[in-house]
Amino acid sequence: MRFVNSKAGLDWISVSELPLSSETLTSWATRPECGAVVTFTGTARNSSTRGHAIEALEYDTSVELAETRIAQVIGIARSRWPTLGPVAIHHRIGTVRVGEPAVVVALSSPHRQAAYEASQFCIDT
Known about the structure:
By secondary structure, the protein is α+β, with helices and mostly antiparallel strands. Helices cover 31% and strands 35% of the residues. Strands 1-2-5-7-3 form a five-stranded mixed β-sheet, with helices on both faces. A two-stranded antiparallel ribbon has the order 4-6. It is globular. It starts with a strand and ends with a helix.
C-alpha cells in the first residue's frame, strides 16, 4: 500500500491479499471541498459469461508493477478531470471468494459529473 502525493491531493493505492473495505475508502475520499463521492466495488460473482460455476477468483501479479500501473491510471484521470479530489484504488490479489470485493475505486470531486466519469475511467482502464 502506498500514498502518492499528487498535485490535487493524495492518491491511495493498494494491491494486497488483505480484505477490502469500500466504507473505509469512501470515508477517506470524503472531503469538505468535494460535493460528490463515487465508490465502485467490484465483487467476485458466482458465474462466468460462459456459464461456469465460480467459487472464487485467484489474482496473481507483481505488486510493484500493479501499483505503478494504477498510479499511471490515476495520473491520466487527473489530467482529464483536473478538479478531482482524493482518489483511492485498491485491488486484491490471492484468493477472492464469491461476494468478496476484488477491487474498490473511491474518489471525490466538487461536482458529480467529473466524479462519475473519472470513476468509470479508473475501473475500465
